[in-house]
Amino acid sequence: MSRIRSALLPPALAILFAAALCAVALVISGASPLTALGVMIGQVGQGTTAVDIVNSAAIYYIVALAAAIGFQMKLFNIGIEGQYRLAACVAAIVGGLIVLPPVLHTLVIIVVAVLVGAVWAGIPALLKAYRGVSEVISTIMLNAVSLGAIAFLIRPDSFGVLQGNNISTKPIEPSGQFPGLDTGAGTIFGMVVVAVLLGVGYWFLLNRTRFGFELRASGESATAATAGGVNAKRMVIIALVLSGAVAGLAGLPEVLGRDFAYTLTSPQGYGFTGLAVALLGRNHPAGIAFGALLWAFLDKSAIALDNIGVPRDIVLIMQGSVVLSVVVAYEVVRRYELAAEQRRVAAQLRGAPAADKEVVG
Amino acid sequence: MTDYAVELTGITKRFPGVVANSDIHLAVRRGEVHALCGENGAGKSTLMKILYGIQQPDEGTIAVDGAQVRFRSPADAIRAGIGMVHQHFMLADNLTVAENILLGAEAQLGIGAKAKARITELARTVGLNARPDMLVERLGVADRQRVEIVKVLYRGARTIILDEPTAVLVPQEVDDLFATLRGMRAEGFTFLFISHKLDEVRAIADTITVIRRGACVGSADPGAVTSRQLAEMMVGSELPSPETRDSTVTDREVLRVTGLQLAADEGGRSLLADVDLVVHAGEVLGIAGVEGNGQTELVETIMGMRRATDGTITLSGTDITRAGTLARREAGIGYVPEDRTRYGLLATQPLWANRILGHQSRPPVARGGLIDREAARRDTRRIVEEFDVRTPGVDVAAAALSGGNQQKLIVGRELSGDPVLLIASHPTRGVDVGAQAGIWEVLRRARADGLAVLLISADLDELIGLSDTIKVMLRGRLVAAADPATVTPEELGAAMTGADGAAA
Amino acid sequence: GCARDTGTPAAGGDAAGTECARNAAPAAAGGAAAPSAAPIAPNADASALRVGLAFDVGGRGDQSFNDSAYAGLERAVAELGLVQDNTREVAAATGESEDARVSRLRQLATEGFSPVVAVGFAYSESLTTVAAEFPDTQFAIVDSVVDLPNVTSLTFAAEQGSFLVGAAAAMRTTSCQIGFVGGVEVPLIQAFEAGFVQGAKAVAPDVEVDVDYISPAGDFSGFNDPARGTEVARGQLDSGADVVYHAAGGSGQGVFEAVAAATTAEAPKYAIGVDSDQFNTVAAPTNEVIMTSMLKRVDVAVFNFINAVAAGDTSVLPQTFDLSVDGVGYSTTGGGVDDLVADLDAYKAAIINGDITVSSTP
Amino acid sequence: MTTLTRARAGFGTLPGWARSAIVVAVGVGLLAVTATLTGQIQLTSSGTTQAAVRLLLPILFAALGGLWAERAGVINIGLEGMMILGTWGAAWAGYQWGPYAAVVGGLVFGVLGGLLHAVATVSFGVNHIVSGVAITLLGLGVTKYLSTLLFLPVSGNPRQSPRVEGFETFSVQPLADALAAVEAQQRVVLSDVAGLLGGLLSGLTPLVVLGFVLVPASYLLLWRTSFGLRLRSCGENPVAAESLGVQVYLYKYIALIVSGALAGLGGAALTLNPGQLGYLEGQTGGRGYIGLAAMIFGNWRPGGLLAGSALFGYVDGVQLRAGGEAVHALLYGASILAVGLAVLWVLQRRWQTAAIALVAGAAVYAVYFSTETVPREFASYAPQIVTLLVLAVASQRLRPPAAIGMEYRRGEGD
Ligand SMILES: Nc1ncnc2c1ncn2[C@@H]1O[C@H](COP(=O)(O)OP(=O)(O)OP(=O)(O)O)[C@@H](O)[C@H]1O
Ligand SMILES: Nc1ncnc2c1ncn2[C@@H]1O[C@H](COP(=O)(O)OP(=O)(O)OP(=O)(O)O)[C@@H](O)[C@H]1O
Ligand SMILES: [Mg+2]
Ligand SMILES: [Mg+2]
């Protein structure tokens, strides 16, 4: 199938190119690329690395879906970072304060996270729709502000609890936790299932619903979408808010599956990863899943590089160059395909007998 | 030295899907106005872009003043003394008049006072009154065109290509332009002049070359040929006629617009003022007007893409003034936009997805918030067949189709779902004769079935031929009405410019 | 014009007129209170041990507690016969997730390293997990308490050391105004602030202490932004402070540079370093302004821990590395506090005696 | 009515420099009054101005970088990545050959990033933001990797370079001393003005001078030369530019190379910051993005972006030096400003805007009155909050280059 080929060829080329680049960097620094690759692959079988890869991939998948929803409409939600962190923090606070029957408790926490993400994304959405403020700038500013908001919320005299030298929110009772799957070599977060469902939902939303159609239409041509009855302002708001709502979930796998609280040392930086993985996966649910797994593999297996004295940062170069080369590859293939299609259409039509010369009516 | 300022020999240019120029030979004598005629898409602009170095020919050669040249970029052409005023203005709104003119020609006199003085001098010869430091965005079309001409003159061009310079001008402005051209011709300038307005061509040209489907079909002597003969040369057959036969107008009101007002975003200037109109079922209401007089705004306001400042719009008795675009479409308005690539299509999406656009809330392509892809494909196939859209299938991207076929797809889509009103904005612009006739036929049939049509067109023959009633729009107002049975294009033209407010 | 009636003098801080009443140092309570200079336990043979060191963000070369932990390891190599090839260091990355820390510790444990030292409170959760998985491996954690039989918690009474440098600052100031620059407003750093303020007030009850943090909790950029650190310190110096103590990690460099820029022969300004003896780690000539450093002897703790493991008994280790075991203290390199040592040692003795208790919260 | 409209048109028709002068004068006056009434003398001290200058310098360079790229029609969100490359390059060259080499090193490394952005966006037509994100990732990875390879052996720390020698600072004498003397007298308003001005004239380095010179220089180059005209035309209407023989690709490449160079200089400014003379991982801390915001804030114009960077640097300087109380005092200033604007608008009979301003002013004053200080958690991010608020109020007056972010391909215009 040429369609599948055109979807898979660019990322394959890009990965090869990025790998070659890294190999060169490794050789220059006097290390063997093959050994490096070998230990990284070997690391997957070590301890809980495989499970960690799956768990991280689920998180990356969620943030990337959030980014992809924006990308579909050419909106750049750089604010995923702030949205998921604030959402995780508030959800953990709420989850720690209330006590509810098991499933309900978890659901409430999830709903809170979604709402906080949505509300926090609603600010740039409104600013964009009604004041014309670029969402890129406003979300960057809001990322900083969300740091302050978290710090304020987690202060021991607001909702924080001192845990030795760490500050955390009040721990969530078992009733609010999201049970995982114990594999013997680590526990797969229960939220992985939610990530998969989100992917399915995203695919369905995009390809089967009116909203998805309008979203893609707006991204392809804002003017044509408007003429087709799509309300541009409304779409901007919904897309960003939805993106924020999904982003709000990204902190939960760890909060509900492992940490049971939000702490000062809770992870950060997923927002940027989400943008990169969404680009890598070309906003396609299957592509993003692949991108998330690749990213997680690189992140988690890199630990093995320490053992053979290769700087772990080579992985960052790999990640950066794979994203850049994948978008270039997609662009080149896209142009080539469009030209090929135009040629094909022309050729087929020329084949049709004298169609061109005929005057109808 | 030969007599010829420019000679094009055996020029062939292919685009994916079209041969825009095939083996064209064209020789332009020095000091003449050489007109190029041909229907939309015949390949005139492409030929001129090749002469101006914007595009490179696949085959063929160019000679300037007898010497063979190869233009890799417009810079090369400019150096050879060729200038071009484009069909679509090439001006940067946010730059000043002087900046637009000096861009690329700074080497001549710098960008200081000397250059400004020269601009002022040239501006006087073409009747441009704008100050050099005025932003272009504040100029009207005629002035913009003058800026374009000054641009060319400033570069010392001796051979000047004018691609449809009169399309956007009112008759007086055309007269002014022609006066300028004649004066310059006397000074030895050579012009390549493209226009669809055959009377104008006969008035100004010394030689006429007719292009059809990318090929040169012959020359004509402007003194001897009639407009009708010329037109038939262009089309290659009897001219199809946009004539509608018997009236099908009913007394059932479909669209009523009352006291419509629209203010510009920045406030102040009014784009539409006191527009009142009624379209009945089975009626085609034509709106005539020089481009930029509010037709686009009127259509977009009726479609809900702009919010009326005041006034009401009712569709079959229901007030839709506050409704959104989609609600209006659902209520039965179909819309063929004037710029199909920007407003009508999703270029990289397949045809069936384009079928959904504007219908995303309605059967057969959607149901209960969900999209039914199979139904969309099926219904697209129906359109392809019914409207003779030439395509290998419904899964190809819209961008792969030629303009005429894209337009037929749009018309087919907009007539799906039983609309009661069709707003057709320049429905045959840039469409080949075959498709044009097809679209006219479709409109006629729909009208006979009781559809109300609001038709905007710059093609006065089309307007007169199709309409049951014609209104003339000038500076945002409907200033006159005309009976298509009796009115002539000339009278209409006079009314459009405000020269004669009392047309019929 | 009319002179303003509000505000303190701006730049310059020539506040010779400011009277700063000072209390006398507590009477030295006899030799008994002198810190146990003797080692906590006699040196054991560590040649059979394989030691893993998991650094916190920053890793080796941070000129702070990671480096200090490494110094402890090196001392064990030198004095306990630990074989260099039997040691392994791994470092954390910024903003990483819990599982990364778990993997790192597990990796060390799996490869048979024991003891494994986790440097930094960020490891508390991960160590709890991993230590339970490897009951036969000995672990230690710096700056945090993990209650498991095979984990030794190496915590420090940073507030006690900070008390002493606070006292030194109050003795040194001529403007009766001193400053504290915290990197990130987390409890760990607040303990430094608390001790510093108490020490200063103990010496000079009227001393004004400017307390500023570079970033709030959760935004760890404050440990890594010398450009902003320098502005915070300059703000304090410009408003009249003449001794500035930092607990700001990498941003501390900015504090030193600010003090170095502000100091003049007529109106000298002083900086106080943190964690390690920063007079030695900061490049000259900037280090000349460092009058002392609050020492947090992670090296002592790590060395003693390795020694205790080698000897087979970790119970001899103190609950907290405080003044009494030289777990915290102040440095004298550079001679910046030579004239104050007697008084400072009196305070030190009083703390060890229990005459003065230092709170770890502001 | 007519006189009033004339008054309104009067300000609008004043030459740009006069308008800027009025705005600056009003700003200085407002700060002086606020400082006097609230007693927060740090608001107008020369130390604060100097801090603002040091803090704004990297942002200013980044903003200039954004200006060059975006005026040629290319969005450059990769500024952060280019700046990271710049910090590394500056440190690497700087520790070996001194501060001037550091400037060159930062510039060269920034250029590499700019070139990459040009290849991706101009030659390959990749979406500008996508390419920018990728370049930032790459910049981070490359510098970390290179640091491990090259800095670790000499500094003992993979995250940090050895110390780089900084520039000597200098002051414009005797003016600086005279102003310092006036400032020290603590006279109402006079000392405030002297403080604000004095800070600008002392503690200078060649890099600071370069930064401030580059603002008018960019203006002259971009608006007063044919080169600049061609470059800007690529951002306004590349098709038209091409039709006039402008080599659009070439100019976009040049613009991005300059943009990268400027971002790299921003990196060098961080490396040569007196607080830490050297490279430190994560040192840029998002300043590239803030530069971009300052440029948008400044309406894609050199003077405007200087104002944007200055606002950011000033607010950051104030909050770092004097904390929540000073930010709190700024609230007081903001309420005075709002009331002032309301009065102005009432005179112009713009009732609605005036009412909004008045209500906003009252609200801000209420916050000021009912609180003692701004919590540190929010004071720390005051610069971002202020930027966001100003954009929310003013962004509709902004005018980006018309063809910004659009893919342009040779020979495809009509
Ligand atoms: N980046 C990618 N990585 C892996 N597979 C992909 C990627 N992009 C597309 N695919 C595969 O190629 C197929 C076609 O993708 P595309 O997005 O064009 O499909 P579509 O038109 O949305 O149809 P549908 O989503 O209904 O399958 C998908 O079904 C998917 O399996
Ligand atoms: N860049 C291009 N890519 C593909 N096809 C093109 C391109 N430019 C022109 N064409 C096609 O070439 C043909 C000739 O177009 P051209 O613009 O030369 O016609 P024209 O005679 O100037 O028509 P009009 O009167 O509408 O201006 C048309 O079918 C058009 O769609
Ligand atoms: Mg799909
Ligand atoms: Mg044409």
Number of alpha- plus pi-helical segments of chain B: 18
What small molecules accompany the polymer chains?
adenosine-5'-triphosphate, magnesium ion
Q: Mind describing the biggest β-sheet of chain B? A: 6 strands, mixed
CATH topology of chain D: ABC transporter involved in vitamin B12 uptake, BtuC
Low-pLDDT residue intervals, each spanning 5 or more residues of chain B:
none
Question: How many separate domains make up the residues of chain B?
Answer: 3
| Structural classification of chain B | alpha/beta
Task: Give me the CATH fold name of the largest domain in chain B.
Answer: Rossmann fold
How many strands in all of chain D? 0
Pfam families (chain D): BPD_transp_2
Protein name (chain D): ABC transporter permease
Organism (chain D): Pseudonocardia hydrocarbonoxydans
Transmembrane segments (chain D): 20-39, 51-69, 75-93, 100-123, 129-152, 196-222, 253-272, 292-314, 326-347, 354-371
Structural overview:
The complex is a heterotetramer of chains A (361), B (504), C (362) and D (414). Chain A has helices at residues 2-28, 33-44, 49-72, 80-97, 102-131, 135-154, 191-208, 210-220, 222-227, 232-249, 252-259, 270-280, 285-301, 314-351; strands spanning 160-163, 166-169, 181-182, 187-188. By secondary structure, chain A is mostly helical. Chain A folds into two domains: 1-31 and 310-353; 53-304, Orthogonal Bundle (ABC transporter involved in vitamin B12 uptake, BtuC), CATH 1.10.3470. In chain A, 60% of the residues are buried. With 504 residues, chain B is α/β, with parallel strands linked by helices. Chain B folds into three domains: 4-235, 3-Layer(aba) Sandwich (Rossmann fold), CATH 3.40.50; 240-332 and 420-504, P-loop containing nucleotide triphosphate hydrolases (Rossmann fold), CATH 3.40.50; 344-417, no CATH class. In chain B, helix 5 crosses helix 6, helix 14 (373-386) packs across helix 15 and helix 15 packs parallel to helix 16. Chain B is globular and about 70 Å long. Chain D is mainly α and 414 residues long. Chain D has one domain (26-169, 205-392): ABC transporter involved in vitamin B12 uptake, BtuC. Chain D is built from 17 helices and no strands. Chain D is globular. Chain D starts with a helix and ends in a 20-residue tail after the last helix. One magnesium ion binds at residues 44-45, 87, 163 of chain B.
